[in-house]
Amino acid sequence: MWVFGYGSLVWRPGFDEAERVPGFVRGFTRRFWQASTDHRGVPDYPGRVVTLLDDDPDAITWGVASRVRDERVDAVLADLDYREKGGYARHHTTVHTADGGTIDDVLVYVAGPTNPCFVGEEPIDVIADRVVRAVGPSGPNTEYVLRLADALRDMGVQDPHVFALDRAVRARLAER
Questions:
Q1: 127: pLDDT strictly greater than 90
Q2: Which residues pair with 176 in a beta bridge?
């Protein structure tokens, strides 16, 4: 089984990967439009995490495809279902690898606009203001944003939305 990570799974998979391959999915954009009440925020003050929107057939979103060891599939699925419980649903997609290949039938968790935690579009400054104040059981929301941006830079990936939020969050942290 393969899993595509485009958020925290990029920098913190949470399971022992049998193989890890940089790659992208077509037709999706990554946006910080999902509220997190269970990991990077709390119900009274939700943080923001990423989801994928299938709003642009020409878009590509880079991340990491991770192969799960056969003997760990059930345990990893249970862990991921718990981790992604805040509005995310299982989908399957094709991942295009950095070396020009493809991996078919890859599991990806997507939180669509009909889920109760979907916030939708907000200005970067509004998202950044929330991120710098939100903390949840998995830690500060700032960690999620900064580590994702750093991981994407390390991969040589350009993501204007993530990098704009990263700049805004870093600016707010520098003002403290």
A1: yes
A2: none
Q: What is the pLDDT of residue 142?
A: 98
Tell whether domain 2-175 is in CATH 3.30.565.10. no
Beta bridge partners of 102: 96
pLDDT for the residue numbered 176: 87
> Comparing C-alpha atoms, which of 3, 140, 128 is closest to residue 63?
3
Phi-psi map region of 27: left, alpha, beta (phi>0 left; psi -120 to 50 alpha):
left
Q: Is 35 left (phi over 0), alpha (psi -120 to 50) or beta?
A: beta
Find where tokens 């039938």 sit: 105
The single-letter code of the amino acid at 91 is H
Annotated catalytic residue within 71, 84, 122, 143:
84
> Is the distance from CB of 27 to CB of 56 less than 8 angstroms?
yes
3-state secondary structure of 126: helix
Q: Please count the residues of the chain.
A: 176
Taking the CA atoms of 154, 143, 85 and 115 in sequence, report the sign of the dihedral they define: negative
Q: In the structure encoding, which two tokens stand for residue 52, read together?
A: 């994928």
- Residue among 60, 76, 56, 59 at smallest CA distance from 16: 76
- Concerning whether 175 is annotated as a catalytic residue, the answer is no
Closest alpha carbon to 59 in 158, 164, 168: 158
pTM score over 0.85: yes
pLDDT digits 0-9 by tens, 75-111? 999 999 999 999 999 999 999 999 999 999 999 999 9
